[in-house]
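quick one: S-adenosylmethionine bound model?
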Amino acid sequence: MNVMMSAPTHIPVLPKETIEALAVQPGGRYIDCTLGAGGHAAAILDRSSPGGQLLGIDADPEAITVARARLEAYSSSMLLINENFADLEAICIKYNFLPVHGILFDLGLSSLQLNSNGRGFSFQHDAPLDMRLSPSQEITAADIVNTSSEDELAWLIKTFGEERHSRKIAHYIVQQRPLKTTLQLAQTIKQAIGSRRGRIHPATKTFQALRIAVNQELEHLESALKQAINLLGLGGRLVVISYHSLDDRIVKRFTHQEASGEKACLRLINKKVITPSLAEVLFNPHSRSAKLRAAERTTDWMSNPPWVNRDSPYMEG
Ligand SMILES: C[S@@+](CC[C@H](N)C(=O)[O-])C[C@H]1O[C@@H](n2cnc3c(N)ncnc32)[C@H](O)[C@@H]1O
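yep, here:
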């Protein structure tokens, strides 16, 4: 059964390349750390049957509901957990799901979240400035926008949005706040820097910055990558798809570092990053900025099991 292209809501990016990079095999055990609408998960379950198992994680409870309905046919082969992948190691130990043959991160947001009217991720819909992946998180984008100092806002927009007009935008935000909705914020940014600059909407980078800050995306990614390699068995694959340069830089640095030197435990599968074909971008414009990196665990898992505290002063070398 090929369920890969039947997603009504979110089209999985680089589907064929992802399954190849994960080297999915029948009977294998896989973790999808970013379950979303379950598109990649369906392909993994399909390719790993008979006998395959999938642990699917998403911080967004709505994603879990959608994916559970979509993947109903595979219910006996999967476990879906509403948690943050920052807790990856603890989740795997709790559910005794290790070692694994492959771990996937398809970072960012799904079309479900971007197109949702009430989540505040997009400046295409008017909604409260929320941007939390999970309702259990305390801090919203509105909290950051309305309580940070002008300097803090400028730093955040520059660092997480790579926006060169960060100072001007921060100044206008402080002048016009309180800002409660996405359209109020987008309008304020337009007033600060003009309406169209090149191909992207003027609010794109500021919205990215706020989303990264609200969800601590960079910290969680760095932490989860370190945990992920300790869950892979010998020959297990780590595959990461990222959509902006801050995430991709973290993935590139991490995989290159773990693949070099005396203590190397990874081998890079693709020396050059994999990007979507023109045909895929035309079919699924959301894929246009995707970059896929993959690596394979080259050392035995049992030499470094995850329940051993590697930072302990009693550990040798
Ligand atoms: C691009 S979508 C994944 C789409 C999925 N691969 C598919 O084919 O349907 C990314 C998903 O990762 C989730 N996510 C992002 N950061 C997360 C984190 N730190 N922990 C758990 N889930 C996260 C988002 O809620 C979103 O549902």
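The chain has a mean pLDDT of 92.
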